[in-house]
TrEMBL record:
Protein name: Aminotransferase class I/classII large domain-containing protein
Biological source species: Punica granatum
CDD domains tied to this protein: AAT_like (cd00609)
Molecular function terms from GO: L-tyrosine-2-oxoglutarate transaminase activity; pyridoxal phosphate binding
Pfam families, sorted: Aminotran_1_2 (PF00155)
Length: 130
């Protein structure tokens, strides 16, 4: 039922195998970090400032962390040029938190589109904590 509901706004159909449910955000963070840490040498890009639990989970999983800045003079948007400089062949994903925690910002549709385009260019996933 969830896959069917989520497929309504997509140009393709999700299957039940595309949906993974957790009991809350904490478990979701733990699961995705542990999956990413399964690749030796992998790293993840985290926002600065950001929600500290991502870094805590990454340290327990031995997943390397790199921080990209949020730009206060641009409404706390992601520094996409900084993301491109940080990413390398071992970068698996970047995290965005929207609405922002702790900044309280809400990304515009246009900025989210730019984030997605940057991630696609780099060949990394976006973990959207919303």
């Amino acid at each position: 039922a969830i896959a069917e509901s989520l497929s309504k706004d997509l140009p393709y159909t999700l299957s039940p195998d595309d949906v993974f449910l957790t009991v809350g955000c904490t478990q979701a963070i733990e699961v995705i970090i542990s999956v990413l840490a399964g690749r030796p040498g992998a790293n993840v890009l985290l926002p600065r400032p950001g929600y500290p639990y991502y870094e805590t989970c990454a340290s327990f999983s031995k997943l390397k962390v790199r921080h990209f800045d949020l730009l206060p003079d641009k409404g706390w948007e992601v520094d996409l040029a900084g993301v491109e400089k940080l990413a390398d062949e071992n970068t698996m994903a970047m995290v965005i938190i929207n609405p922002g925690n702790p900044c309280g910002n809400v990304f515009s549709y246009e900025h989210l589109k730019q984030v997605a385009e940057t991630a696609k260019k780099l060949g990394i996933m976006v973990i959207a904590d919303e």
